[in-house]
Design a protein that fits this description.
With 353 residues, the chain is α/β, with parallel strands linked by helices. 29% of the residues lie in helices and 24% in strands. Helix 2 packs parallel to helix 4 and helix 6 crosses helix 7.
């Protein structure tokens, strides 16, 4: 029995020794931190893409107005045209005056990203229009500074047109788009007292040569009422003008700017077959990408023409009847203020009021 007891004591001492030795060895080993695996970032290759904004880069807009998106293009040295990959983040709150941004971003296949911004200022209308807005009507131009002469009274001297644009620019006139004009006529939008719209009928070559460069110079957008069977707005030069933000294309019909009715000036929309007329205007709208506005060919309208315009889905239609537009006017028979040659700046200013 004594022997067994002694054996158990020795065994316990041995086991305690082994445990102590093990702990000592563990404590004597240097401690090492676990190695964190670092993922290697993918190296970007090539150059970043380039974004080109279409339209005006710094815009102003009335409270509750309509922002028109002109878009942008993007090119990459390796990937070529990547415009379809542009993402647009519109942060505008039209109901709240302030400074806003429309952000355009694009990535190429290598992960290179580019961002650009369009700035938009929404402002409160303080001096509201109460007596009507002038929608001016022009046709053709001649460069009197180069010794040219106009063929008839529909031709306006370059120097006179430039003086009118300069006046609008220097006096901070607001130029609403046609969607805003429609809201104004419906009584749903306030426009500043200093508001005006400039329209050019037919799209004759002097519009490109004389009117367009002046519009860009003085930052005054122009509405061009074009006959879409005469003017192909899908051509590169036409798109270049539109992308500037200073030309807004609207309809002068597709192929009804001709006589044949014997009423007034004889615009064919006055007596054309109803379905044919509707199809004509729908064709024009499809080519233009909008159905916001129409100028009646030769300025003439009647109930038959209005029914065609209404069924075609055109929102606004302008005649050549003299006068301003007002809240509550008939949207398919709006007046304009004709500008003929010889109208000086004083007369132009008086017609703004």
């Amino acid at each position: 029995m004594v022997i067994i007891t002694i054996f158990l004591i020795l065994f316990c001492i041995f086991m305690l020794y082994k445990i102590f030795s093990t702990l000592k060895d563990q404590n004597s080993k240097p401690k090492t931190k676990p190695v964190k695996k670092v993922e290697k970032k993918k190296e970007k290759i090539g150059e970043v893409p380039e974004i080109k904004l279409y339209g005006i880069s710094e815009m102003t807009m009335v409270k509750n107005g309509i922002y028109e998106e002109y878009g942008a293009s993007a090119t990459d040295k390796e990937d070529g045209d990547i415009s379809k990959d542009i993402k647009i983040n519109n942060k505008i709150k039209a109901e709240k005056p302030g400074e806003y941004e429309v952000i355009y971003t694009v990535k190429d296949k290598d992960g290179n990203e580019t961002k650009t911004v369009r700035k938009v200022t929404v402002f409160e209308v303080k001096d509201k229009d109460t007596d009507g807005i002038s929608v001016f009507m022009y046709h053709y131009f001649y460069d009197d500074t180069a010794g040219e002469n106009g063929e008839n009274s529909n031709y306006l001297a370059k120097s006179l047109f430039e003086g009118q644009l300069k006046y609008l620019h220097d006096n901070d006139y607001y130029i609403p788009n046609m969607k805003e004009v429609a809201l104004y006529v419906d009584g749903k939008l306030d426009l500043p007292e200093k508001s005006a719209v400039l329209t050019l009928d037919d799209g004759e070559e002097s519009n490109y040569r004389i009117a367009y460069p002046l519009a860009v110079q003085y930052k005054i957008p122009l509405v061009w009422f074009v006959v879409t069977s005469w003017t192909d707005v899908s051509q590169e030069y036409q798109k270049e003008l539109y992308n500037s933000g200073y030309i807004r294309y609207h309809s002068h019909t597709d192929n009804m700017h001709e006589g044949g009715c014997g009423e007034q000036h004889g615009g064919r929309i006055l007596c054309v077959d109803h379905e044919q007329g509707v199809n004509d205007l729908k064709t024009s709208a499809e080519k233009l990408g909008n159905s916001d506005a129409l100028a009646y060919p030769c300025g003439d309208t009647n109930d038959h023409a209005k029914e065609i315009v209404k069924e075609a889905g055109i929102t606004l239609a302008f005649t050549t009847e003299y006068g301003q537009i007002h809240k509550g006017d008939e949207k398919l028979a709006l007046s304009r203020v004709r500008i003929n040659d010889g109208i000086g700046l004083d007369t132009f200013v008086s017609q703004l009021k």
